[in-house]
Amino acid sequence: MTRKTKNKVSKTKATKSKEPVELARGHGRLRSSVEDTQLAKQTPQTPQTTSDAYKLAFDDLEFITREELRPVRLQLELLKMEMLLQEQGIESTVVIFGGARIPAPGQKPIGITVAQNKSLKAKAHFYEEARKFAALCSRYSKKTNYSEYVVCSGGGPGVMEASNKGAAEVGAPSIGLNIVLPHEQAPNIYVTPELSFQFHYFAIRKMHFLLRAKAITAFPGGFGTLDELFETLTLIQTQRSAPMPVVLFGEEFWRRIINFEALAEEGTISPGDLDLFKFAETAEEGWKIIADWWDIK
After folding, report:
1. Are 158 and 101 in contact (CB under 8 A)?
2. Rounded to whole angstroms, what are the CA distances from 291 to 91, 227, 245?
3. Each residue of 205-238: pLDDT tens digit?
């Protein structure tokens, strides 16, 4: 079905007529937004058509980024990743949190002081454990045709890079959830391009970390890692999220920076809340905790 229109506005020299756009199948009698976006670009140039007011609302970047449109943008960030993961058939993930500053073995640390660089260099083995852990998850994910237990990281450097690298090394897809920051957050080269996402809103990014998670793991990291870990523990503690294995790699690190027992002794958490997570030192130990929880043979 075609639709012919006559231009009664432009008095300029007639241009070569374009073939009318056919209605896409599946849209019934209504033309799609994609088709109308293409047609709008063929509109004759007049003071009216070149006005910002004349732009299609959904194709107007200045309009869609206005303060009043924040609820719409929140919805778009939630829907985009959800729809693309559904199209890829990804039903569950293993989320790997950890510091962007943890170097690969032999890589120069990026600490500010000599002491920091020494400490970061000593943590390089966590890069290797994250890489090996991601490979273990991905090998099992292959048995599900990569629909379950897909590795998901923050998409950046350090532990995040190691996680995506471990998946890539065994030929598996992996997800990266980047966020716009003034530093560090270019996607690492190991994230599957079709599963490399970027966010403006931290809240929506954190929702996506948890929506499909069958396990949450945390390697040593900074404020971001702590934020993501404690939000997860709070959601499980308050039964806003179903129970799942939460694995902390590097018991010495975690006990040094957080006195979990003191929280229970002070009465600010229940003694049973200390059972919400387990410690692991190696990739194999971490995977075993998850496999035992979900009865994976």
Report:
1. yes
2. 17, 26, 9
3. 999 999 999 999 999 999 999 999 999 999 999 9
Which of 17-21, 49-53, 251-255 is least confident? 17-21
Would you say residue 116 has pLDDT above 80? yes
For 14, 43, 44, 63, the CA distances from 47, given in Å and listed in that order, are 17, 12, 10, 19
Please name every residue paired with 178 in a beta bridge, in sequence order, or none if there are none: 198
Task: Report yes or no: 215 and 94 within 8 Å, Cβ to Cβ.
Answer: yes
Mind listing the domains of the chain with CATH numbers? 74-293 (3.40.50.450)
pLDDT of residue 13: 38
Q: Could you tell me the pTM of the whole model?
A: 0.88
Spatial separation of the C-alpha atoms in residues 22 and 255, rounded to whole Å: 65
Contact between 98 and 125 under an 8 Å Cβ cutoff? The reply is no
Confidence at residue 182, expressed as pLDDT on a 0 to 100 scale:
85
In this prediction, residue 185 carries a pLDDT of 65
Transcribe the chain into DSSP letters.
--------S--SPPPPPPPPPPPPTTSTTSPPHHHHHHHHTTS---TTTTSGGGS-GGG-HHHHTSGGGHHHHHHHHHHHHHHHHHHHT---EEEEE--TTPPPTTSPP--SSHHHHHHHHHTHHHHHHHHHHHHHHHHHHHHTTTSSSEEEE-SSSTHHHHHHHHHHHTT--EEEEEE--SSS-SPPTTS-GGGEEEES-HHHHHHHHHHTEEEEEE-S--HHHHHHHHHHHHHHHTTSS----EEEE-HHHHHHH--HHHHHHTTSS-GGGGGG-EEESSHHHHHHHHHHHTT--
Retrieve residue 132's tokens. 């090996």
| Non-local CB neighbours of 183 within 8 Å, separated by 6+ positions | none
Q: Which two tokens stand for residue 241?
A: 């999220």
